[in-house]
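Sharing in case it's useful to others searching the archive later.

Someone asked me privately for the predicted structure of F-box only protein 2 isoform X2, so I'm posting the question and my answer publicly. Question first, with the sequence:
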Amino acid sequence: MESLPEAVLIRILASIPAADLVLVCRLVCCQWKNLVDGAALWILKCQQEGLTGEESQENAENWQNFYFLSKRKRNLIKNPCGEEDLQYWGEVENGGDGWKIEELPGDFGKEFPSEDVHKYFVTSYEWCRKSQVIDLRAEGYWEELMDTTQPKVVVKDWYAGRSDAGCLYELCVKLLSENEDVLAEYKSETIAIPQDNDADWTEVSPQPFNHYP
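And my answer, the predicted structure tokens:
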């Protein structure tokens, strides 16, 4: 292995799972450590797995971090559309007749912009609330990554009213420390949808949480 050209060794290392590169291969010798810590190996892994593009060219100051963050870029909300009723949702408050799950488009509603969504949560005539806590460490974001890279946490939600009934909507998002101290918070205004509306779906997305005090 010592006689192999560096370019060949990088291609061999690129075939190894990323976690093994960091936790095992990096400890073999100084040469392997430098290769694992360098950009060339991770650029190749990104290319092999289709993770390169305009975004990578603009934002990948550290290609290793970019690789791991790209692999973890997914919706962390469990059961976001009610396919499993209210499973994974806590602090459920059932005002009026309580929460229900309906098939799209539902009564007096419209189809969702994405064909992948088939169900949705329905509230009642009094406030209905629910919440979900996401443990970033349990989802594979290790402490050093959160402390140094501080990956952006992007939050999105969609709401709509029945065409024959008005409603109110609120969204609250909190970024918590390990001790559950609030590091950052977003709370929308109370959005009022009038009666006899168009039943259009509207996306709400606050600015990403990308600063951890």
